[in-house]
Amino acid sequence: MAKPGRHLEGAQTRERILSVAASLLAQQGYAATSISQICRAADALPASIYWAFGSKEGLFAAVMEREAEVFFEALPAIRPGDPSADTDQLADVFEARPEFLRLLLVLSLERRDGDPAILEAARRVRGRAIDHIAATLEPSVVLSDRARARVVCRDVARFALMLLDGAFIARQIDPGSADSRELFRTIGTGMRAMLDHLTAQAQAGKPAAALDHLTAQAQAGKPVAARTRRKS
Hints:
Elements: H1 6-28, H2 35-42, H3 46-53, H4 56-74, H5 87-96, H6 98-110, H7 116-137, H8 146-173, H9 180-203, H10 208-219, H11 224-231
Helix pairs in contact: 1-2, 1-4, 1-6, 3-4, 4-6, 4-7, 5-9, 7-8, 8-9, 8-10, 9-10
């Protein structure tokens, strides 16, 4: 029979391990962060880490999902419909919690050819972000075909994540290059323009496959809207 308090102690140890691992990963990256280093900093035994997480990759995948949970809980309630609204509040959350995006990018890039557990965790995190953004956008899409509306919103959400990735990297390389609130206002404006463009294309009866193609071009940085105007 388990002793009273053992479950709580185990949960506290797990949380301490995750916190320490997140801090070390954000500072040093995957390769430079060892299980023995985490054990020393967290005052934990290696056996407890392998028992709880299975492997180093399993631990770091859990770190990523834990940081995502904390990050999403910190996001302010966004008014549905307009991606250009509430950008200042979003910018403040990203500025206050840069570790989440740093972990997501570092782990995804360093381990892209390694154990799939980390990449799968990254995909789950990004999928959750896409779901959140798309659900916020959907009320503003004026399309009778709600299935098409959801496709448009998810395309814009993926586009938004790519903009966020770029903005975060720019801030890490040159912190003084731009104010975070200004960056988020620009991202919001771009999302609004993309949402309006894809909605108009859907209203004009353009097939969904063509919408996907346009979105892929936009994500690659090509001026979709300008090129479309020249063709009309």
